[in-house]
Input
Amino acid sequence: MTRNSDSRRGQSVVETVLMLPLLLVLLAGGYWSYRQLSLSGSTESAAHAHLLRTGRNLPSIGSRLARTIHPSDNAVRFNVRNGPLAEQFPLFRGMAGRTVASVEVSCPKDPVGGFIDLPRHDARRNAEGSVDCWGKGTRSGSTIRRTVSGILLTGALR
Output
């Protein structure tokens, strides 16, 4: 009877030895997938926040956003450009209002344990929109005020 219990104990050790690497690979893959989804969502949110702040001529918070996405210094890069809102209309040519923001995250390989490195994470998200940036101090705001005043004066003179 002792021989039968010894063989069962040996069988469970063999099963554990065979299944442990598979379970570790599955756990590492789950961790990497979660990390990729998390970075992707954070990058999307940062692109929209940067778009709104830049389009409204507010101070940039890019360094704080970068630290919330990834703590390393060179992992997150922001790029923003303002374009004209309407190029076809002569009165409104050169007026700002169309903003394009992009955020690029590039994280190095993650060391897991002493023998495995997970692949690097790369995410790039773009956000584009027409943002209200027609305040008093902006070029677009003065263009709008001049155009509306001209239209009103022309109507009053008629």
